[in-house]
Amino acid sequence: MWRGGNDVGSGDRALEVFLDGIRFELPTPRASLAGVRAWLEALALSQRRVISVLRVDGEPVAATGSDALPQEFHRVEAETIGLEEMPLQVVATALEQTNALLARAEAALAQMCINDAAGAREVWWRLAADLKLPLITLSLLPLPGASPGQASPLQLRLWQLEQLAQIIRDLNHHAESDDSHTLIEAFEKRLWPWLWRLRETLLLQRETLAAGARLAGVF
Description:
Blueprint: E1 16-19, E2 22-24, H1 33-46, E3 49-56, E4 59-61, E5 75-82, H2 86-114, H3 117-128, H4 133-138, H5 153-175, H6 180-218
Parallel strand pairs: 1-5
Antiparallel strand pairs: 1-2, 3-4, 3-5
Helix pairs in contact: 2-3, 2-6, 3-5, 3-6, 5-6
């Protein structure tokens, strides 16, 4: 698919740039990572693909956005996916976000147990602000039609948002108490199971999409 080497031009040879394992030389020197990424994204889009993974000197960097980009770098590696693979990528990203939230929730619970009510309240609020991230990511999935007798995918997503909103309202209510144990108990009974159920749903969804992709590859 890709052609690397001198076919692309002769840029700064001290910088190594790879796209899907193929090395490229930039057509003109680029002093910033934003410039390198912009060139790689244009190259990927020309083949109807999008960048899904970006690594700089071996460390992962957000494939989108421009905040906190490294100022000094020597090796940039990007991996792409086809548009037909996007649903699987979206679910995989939501699963990563959910796993990260579970880890943060575990750490938050430990902090709440050793803090007074005011401290526990702050710990909860910091976590609460990011709980919506997997659901926002899932909103990028296409919306197929509903099967007869079943709720539509859009309705299911709305229900998930409503459930999360109710959980956050409940925990906010308990956070107002001067006794941190009421917040901790609500955290364990409401938020913790919801996160695990979301993770199980995403695991099943990922397996289903991966199986469909394998079948599509066979046929």
